[in-house]
Structure formats: structure tokens, C-alpha cells
Amino acid sequence: MNTIKQNGNEINHQLIAMEDALKEAFHLEEDKNEPWMLTDLAALSDLSEAFPQDVGKFLSATGWINSEGEDQYRLTRSGRARAVELIRAHRLWEQYLATYEGRQLELLHAEAHQREHGMSSEEVARLDAVLGYPVWDPHGHAIPDEGGLVPSNAGNPLSDVCVPGSAFRVVAVDDHPEELLAQFVALGIVPGTELTIIALGNQIIKIKTNDQILPLALTAASHIFVVPAVETSVLMGQMSVGESAQILELQGKGKLQRRLLSMGFVPGAMISIVREAPFGDPFLCRIKKSNVALRRKEADAVLVKQ
Amino acid sequence: MYTIALAGNPNTGKSTLFNALTGDHQHTGNWPGKTVEQKVGDFKYHNQEFEIVDLPGTYSLTAVSTEEIITRDFIVINKPEVVIVIADVTNLERNLYLITQIMELTDQVVVALNMMDQLQSKGMRVDVEKLSSELGVPIIPITALKKEGIFHLLDTVVGIQNKSIRNSPRRIVFNEQIESMIGEIEGFAQSSDKESLSRWWAIKLLEGDSEVIKMLQEKGNQKAVDAARNIVNNLELKPEIVIASDRYNLISQIAQKAVFYEKETRDITEKIDDIVAHKILGIPILFLIASVTLWAIYNIAGPIGGLFETIFDQLISWTASGFADAPFWLRGIIVDGILVGVKQLFVFMLGVLFVFFFIYGILEDVGYLVRGAFIMDRIMRWFGLPGKAFLTIFAGFGCSIPGIMGTRIIDDENDRITTAIVVPFIPCSARIAVITSIVPIFFGFGIKATLVTIGILGLSFLTIAIVAYLVKKIAFKGEETTLIMEFPDYHLPLLSNVLRTTWNRTYSAMSKALIIFVPFSIFIWVLFNFPAGATQDATWGMQIGHFLDPIGKTIGLSGKDMTGFLFSYPAKELSLLYLGLAYGVGGEEGVLNLIGGIWSPLQALSYLAFLTLYAPCLATVASLLKEVGRKWTFYNVLISLAAGFFFSALIYWGGTLFVG
């Protein structure tokens, strides 16, 4: 990674502050899809007292924003492009830090935030190439491509979908606030985690994940993005020797189904494939402390979850 | 005399317990109208006589198989005083599935918890008292093989019978939805039954049990059936699955309270199966076992046959001198008809049957048969047969009769009939004896002879595959069949058990054969000895030859040769004897020299093919009649004749084209 040079000395501190403001402005506009006021921006940023006039002046001077009436602003095309480029650089750096430096999920944001500034488009493109053109950053957020196209983030905030009993898979967690992310990581809530909503209380939900039950504030839940967990069912007949699974349902009929039921093939039961006959069929399945031989075609009447 | 029923899963030691209880006081037959073996015995305990009925081994009481229907019908209709359910303690949950169902049929249940000696090696511990209180019926630990716990079991049986022990069987409570449906249907079912079986009727109706529906309709209770149908039709879930899984769930809960697994062990059975049921090694091991069995049949059954030959020859010569003054026909019928005929059975069949059933019994008792079926299933299905058919086909090399009787282990009725029909196409020891006598005359002992012998074997298998395919396609409309079978744990065979079943099976096969054999022997004798005083060529039998000439021509043989197939119908060993008779030469040597002179190699091939395939011998027909009934026996004879003519004609005329 020596090719990616961090020319930090040359970075103008003011530029950093302004680029951060630009990013915030971008998010603001994305969320609301209407012009915004400098005071809105100030509320979001941790910029200096000089705000908001200085910022407004600077951003206008770079041609990144346009005034649309009294204290009403929108990003210009070049402003949007730069903002997306910054986001792209940020997420690429996060990916770099996670994969090449092995940093913890909660420790990525601050460092990436430092490194994202002052990079030319070529430098960002080179970083992208080195990383193998990743689509998602370690938090599960989409990385914009070179043309600035932002893939829509997968999933919905957990706070929007919390119906007790429903199961989800985490696709993304917000990278800030960092304290919250650190908490998520400590609890094992990272992209890929499966969780089930158990109860919905006043501003608090209970979720079950990794075999433990956790309370979670709704506001915290809004930083977790989820998609419904699809139970990928497999036909039992397609299992290989050595695999284990849990029975989801039976879809056979008549005699076959009755025979299966009486041998203990009921929903919820655990099975494993012990061995198979010459030519791979029939196979021997361990269920409830006994070994039962069945043909793969018969086993296809059983749907399992691996 | 009180009646006790003995029920339980297969492979739980049920026969061992039955034998331990009854000893020699037992007899074997069939369940009325079924091809399922019924064993009934009696014993005395504390001056009280008991009759005990061994119910077929089952996993459940649905209408899946004849065995299950027999079991539940016996409990519901015959109402035995006490039902002993034997259970394998090492596999308790699956056994409880049956136990809880029997407890829905009767309160008079005692559980005999078998294989208690296996607990340690399985790393298990069982709290019998806890289990008993959870189930609400007495549970008696036993080890049937060592006859441990039998008296305790009998005391409990007596207690239940004289009501000094009162059971309150645990009722499986299903989820609310199912329970409310049961309640609703139960109301309608009540009128059909005063004896508290209404809940059971309701459960069965919800499961859509066709036999129970039929039973209730016969009782005139269409209402309950309709009520159930209405309820079930409006459901998205399948009550049958919910009922089964609720039952298993409750069973798991019960088992968790009483059965403890202290360590996960990989027991000896798994280790043996690693080799015996191995994906690659399995086949050679199976063929090794098959070869040893065939070797034993040819080498042990032979001397047994020889012994009987000496005995019968002596008997025949005595009888012959005893009847020296009797009229020619009486002496002929008794000596040359009956005695000589019966001699064939004892000389050629008894030994083969006994040796085969003995080895088969050991393989069965040890638990190997199921492994063999597992290994061969894929291969047998290329022939349109189930894996278990391998065992019967292989038995067929000894004698078709054990092969046909062996089809009982095939659960599926269609598969069973198909297999029984094709078994006689395998050349049995009798046909192999004739084939191996004739082949060297025409083809020597070299590669040619080997090819011819293999060819005949190939013809057998080809016929099996074609017939099995057609039978399944035409008669059974290609219905799907199932394999699903449990791998029981291996255990050492109990010699007394094996000998008992060997004797029962041999006796059953021999007596069936004798009944049909005697009259037919007389018939054949008369045919080939009348009109009285006629020369050999002038007898009725030989005269038939003239009529058979045109038929024989179709496969290149003379009518005289064809008559031989009729003559040797009682037993195919007689083929050579007949040829000697027909052509007026004595001794096997003479016969073989003779046919070497009058047949061309093509004719010999045609003869061998026909001998191999044409209608099974009389004893086999007797066995078929018992196992598959008249209709299928008739079809079998017809198919065999057709196959014999077809292939012999094909060989003869096809061969003529090449040889010229």
C-alpha cells in the first residue's frame, strides 16, 4: 500500500472543516430533498464559532453550493460530486483499515475521517483498485463508484420494522456515533448477525441474538439496518454425508409422510447424515438416537434448515 | 384363560421375550387373510393360564402397513386383558411414540423396558420410577436375552389383569387448536363407542386415517366422518403433522426428565457399520457373505440330501417288497408315485431349505439383512426391485421357495409381489445341477462353457428386469414405493431363537410343498405308466409328446423333449431322469452321452433356456400360492411359460441364422 501516500502535511485544516461541512450538507439534502439553511448545518457539525457565515462564504466560493433565496441553499453539481467522492474515499479507507490493518469495526471511522481528505480522484481510484473494487464498507454501507453513483443502502432501520416475532439479518450498522458502534460490536451486532424481535416496549425493544436476549433503545435501533431473515430451506435429499440440519416441514403425502412421522421426522427435529450406500443412494440419517435409511427421493419430502 | 398381547417396535427383542415367556408352547401361522406371521403361545403363572399373542413389530398405529392395522385392530377388537409393550431403552423416544398411542387404546398397559444391559455401553442412565410416574403405567426393566426381570413383568401382568394395579395412562395433550377439533369430532364419535375410544377415533379422523374412516362408516357413523372432513378441509395446517410433532414434543419432555446421557459414545454398531455398510467395501463384503452362504448350501445340504436318499431308498425297497403281491397300480402309486416323489422333496429340498433358513436367520438376528438391503438398494432398483429383494434373489440360487418366503421382509405390498414373481427366474440349485451337467457335453469345460453359463445367468437377470418392469408398469401403474427402514444395533445371535425360526420356516415350506406334491406325483406316475402293461413309448405321457411336437418345434425341440418339462414339473432335478426314461437309457452317464448325440448345441441352449425360465416347479407354485395368492401365481406360471418360449425361440432361431 505504499503507493497510497498520505500527504497530511499539505492538508489545510480549514479545507478539512469545509469538506466535512460539505458532507453533512450532502446528507441533509439527501434526507430532506429540499433546500437547507446554514443553521441546520451548524446544528449537525462540530465546526468552529466562525460558523455559519464563514462556511457559507467558503462553500459558495468553491462553487459547491448555491444560494436559493434568503438563507436557503442547495449543493451544486460539483458540490455533490465532491461530497460523494469524499464519502467514497471515507468508506474505501474504512475497508482498507479493516482488511489491511485488521482494525476493529468501531475504530475505523475516526482514522478514515482523517485520511479521506485531500485525495485526488486518481488516488481514490487507485485505492479502489487495490481493494478490489469493494461494494460494501465494513459497516455494511454502500461505497459509491467512480462515477459517483451511490448504490442505495440495503435494508431498513431496525426501529422501523420492529414487529415482535419477526427475524432479521443485519446488513449495516452506522459508523457513528462511535460509542454506539462500539457497543454494537461488543454485543455482536455486526453486518451478518441474525436477530429476532422478542418484545416491543416504550422506546425500547428486546431482541434475541447470538443466543442472548438484549434490550435496545429505539434510537439505537435506528442505527441498525436489517433485511428480513430468509430461512433458506433445503430438500433433505440434497444433503451430504456429515451435514446436520433441523427439520422445517414435511411436504410428502400419504404413506410416505406417515412413515416419516412415525420414525421421528417431525418439524423441529435435528437430523444428520451418517453415511451413504454405493452410488450415493440411499443414505443413512441419524434421528432421535437411531439410524434410519432412506432414499434421497424420499428424503426430499422433508424440508430442512442447515 | 386370559389373553395378553405383546406389542412393540421392530428390533426391540420382542421375539426373544415371546420365546422366553412361552418356550415350546407356541405355534406359528398367518394372520387371517394376511401374509403376516402370527405367533400365539401359552404359559402358566401362579396357576393362571395365559394365552399370549405376538403382535407384529410396528413404529406407529396409523394405517401405513398391514402390521400396524393388525396391531391396532387386535387391541381394539379382541380387547386383550393386558398389553405388554416392549421398548428398547436405548432408543426410548421412538419407542414412546408407539407406547403413547397404545395408551390411547387401552389402560391395561405394562411397558417392558428391554436392553437394560446396554445402558452402560451407551453412556446412559434411566430413572425408571420417574418414567413410570410420568407415563402413568408400570414400567418393568428387563433384559430379555438373559431372561432378567421376567417374573417381575409377569407379576405386574397379573396385577393389571386382576385389577390390583390400576393404571392412569398419561394422555398426550395436543395444542389448543387440535384439542378443540378433537373435542368437536369426539362428540360425533361417541355414539359409535361406549368404551372411551372416542378420543382415539377423533384423533384418527383428524389424521385422515382411511381405515378408521371405513370402520366408522361400517358402524353407520357417517356424521363423525363428515364432521372431521369439514374441519380438516378448512385448515391450512396438516393435522397429521401437528399431531405427530406435538406427540414427539411431549415425549421429548418426558424423556428429558427420565433419561440422561452422560457421555456421547460411538458404539460398536457404528464401528462395524463403518466397514460393513461402507460405500465401497459394502458390496464385496455382501458378495463374500452371499458366496459363503451358497457354498454352505451346496456343501452341507448335499450330505443332508444324501442321508435322506439312503433312508428313502431303504424305505422304498421295504415298501416295494411289502407290496410285492399288490396289484401293479397300487404298488406303483404308493412306491413309485408317492414315495419316490416325496423322496425328491427330502433329498433335494429339505437340506437346502434348512441350511438357507439357518444362515438367513442368523443374518437377520444379527441385524445384517437391513445393511445388505441398504447397500443393494440402488443396484436393485435398476432391476425395478427394492434393496431387500437382493436377499430373496440371492436365496433363489439355493431354492426359489425361501426366496419367495423371504419376500415377507419387504414392507411395500407392490414391491413384495413383484419380487416374489421374479424370484423363480433365478436358476435354483436343481436347475444349476442340470445346467452344469448338460453344458460340458456341448461346450466342454473351457471359456465357451463359462460364457454359456454366464449367458444363462444373464438371461435370468434380463428376464427379471423385464418382468419386474412390466409388472410394476402395468399392474401397479408405476406407484411409488418406499424404503425407509431402521438400522438396528448389531447383537450376537441367540442360537435357540435362530433354530426355532429355522425350524418353523422349513416346516412351513415343506408341509405346503408336500400337500401339493403327493397328488401331482401320483398324477405323473399314472400318466407315464398307463395304459397298464403298455411299453414305455405307448404310455399316455409319451403319447402327449406327439401332440407337443408342433409346440416343441417353435423352440427347436421335439415333442418328446417337451414332455420332459411336464414330467419334471414336480421338481426340475427330474429332467435328466426323464430324458433317460424317454430315450430308453439308464444312468446319468448314459443320458448325457445320449443327448450329446441327438441334440445340436443350439438345441441344448434352447433346452437350457427353457428349463431355466419355464413355469416354476410344483413346490415353488405351492409357496407362491401361499405368499401371493392364486391370481399372481397364475400370472407367474403364464409369464414364465411365455418368457421360456420367447427366449428359447430367440436363441434357437436367432442362432440358426448365424450357424446356418
Work out the oligomeric state of the chains in this entry. Answer: heterodimer
Most extensive contact: A-B, 35 and 42 residues
User: In order across it, which strands form the biggest sheet of chain B?
Assistant: 2-3-4-1-5-6-8
Largest sheet composition of chain A: 6 strands, antiparallel
Beta strand count of chain B: 10
Strand segment count of chain A: 14
How large a portion of the residues of chain B is in β-strands, by DSSP E?
5-15%
- C-alpha-based Rg of chain B, rounded: 29 Å
Alpha-beta content class of chain B: alpha/beta
Number of helices in the DSSP assignment of chain A: 10
N→C terminal distance of chain B: 77 Å
Q: What form of chain B results from the Cα inertia axes?
A: elongated
Report mean pLDDT of chain A, rounded to a whole number: 81
Could you give the topology of this structure?
The complex is a heterodimer of chains A (306) and B (660).
Chain A: H1 13-32, H2 38-44, H3 53-61, E1 65-67, E2 73-75, H4 77-100, H5 108-115, H6 121-130, E3 156-157, E4 167-173, H7 178-187, E5 194-200, E6 204-209, E7 212-217, H8 218-221, E8 224-228, E9 233-235, E10 244-250, H9 254-262, E11 270-276, E12 283-287, E13 290-294, H10 296-299, E14 302-305
Antiparallel strand pairs in A: 1-2, 3-8, 4-5, 4-8, 5-6, 6-7, 9-14, 10-11, 10-14, 11-12, 12-13
Chain B: E1 2-8, H1 14-22, E2 26-30, E3 37-45, E4 48-54, H2 66-78, E5 82-88, H3 92-105, E6 109-114, E7 124-126, H4 128-135, E8 139-141, H5 150-161, H6 176-189, H7 198-206, H8 210-218, H9 222-233, H10 239-258, E9 259-261, H11 268-276, H12 282-322, H13 328-366, H14 368-382, H15 389-396, H16 400-406, H17 413-422, H18 429-443, H19 447-475, E10 485-487, H20 495-527, H21 540-553, H22 559-567, H23 574-583, H24 587-598, H25 601-613, H26 618-659
Parallel strand pairs in B: 1-4, 1-5, 5-6, 6-8
Antiparallel strand pairs in B: 2-3, 3-4, 7-9
Helix pairs in contact in B: 3-10, 4-10, 6-7, 6-9, 12-13, 13-20, 15-16, 16-26, 17-19, 17-26, 18-19, 18-24, 18-25, 19-25, 20-26, 21-22, 22-23, 23-24, 25-26
